[in-house]
Amino acid sequence: MTKSGEKYTKRVDGRGFKDVRPMSAKVGIVKRADGSAMFKIGDTVAYAAVYGPRELHPKFMQDPSTGVLRCSYAMMPFSGHGSRVRPGTSRRAKEISMIMANALMPVLDLKMYANSVVDVFVSLPQTDAGTRCAGICAASMALADAGFEMKDMVAAVSVGVADKTVLADINAHEDCDIGASDIPVAMLPQSGKISLLQLDGVVSKEKLSEALDLAKELCTKISEVQRNALKEKYSSGVSQ
Fold first, then answer.
1. Most buried of 27, 31, 71, 116, CB within 10 angstroms?
2. Is the pTM of this model over 0.90?
């Protein structure tokens, strides 16, 4: 049951239970970055900018066998619902930054960039849940835009379960007010491999399996949006 004790039978934004919010994407938006992208899903907007590879300092952090991927996640102070987000680094932002890097690393090979770092900065000026997933989607496109060789794109989406109903792409109302279990998933669409799986809440094994099947279907759709954004830029001959 939901927090209010009522059965969840209708989504407040009018979507079907398995429908994602409207999506849009664009690459090459930060001209001085080596690669950049914007990914929007519903009212959640993520911008990603890639810089590097460049020499990593301080030198004791360098790895002589490979380059290092470093992600930085930040929500703007008045980006979302509820209280103002404090500017600067928080424990949550550090955790999500690490999660993003782990989700992206399976598609990258940085061995040719020994002792170097690739920085990915993700900013969210507007949020309505699913922020880490939107950030991963934007970061994946920005890395491709920067010219890194990638095995696949990384697509991500937050699915959920409310009153035993599996939901696609949960929004802030469902996450905070309804109390739906939140399941962020990042996936390599071509292979079906999962690079991120988290669970905030309690779900049955059967519902988790159903949610993962839905996430796989949705990530395939999201990857098409990502690839189309890249194709749109480079088919038009636009360069940074």
1. 27
2. yes
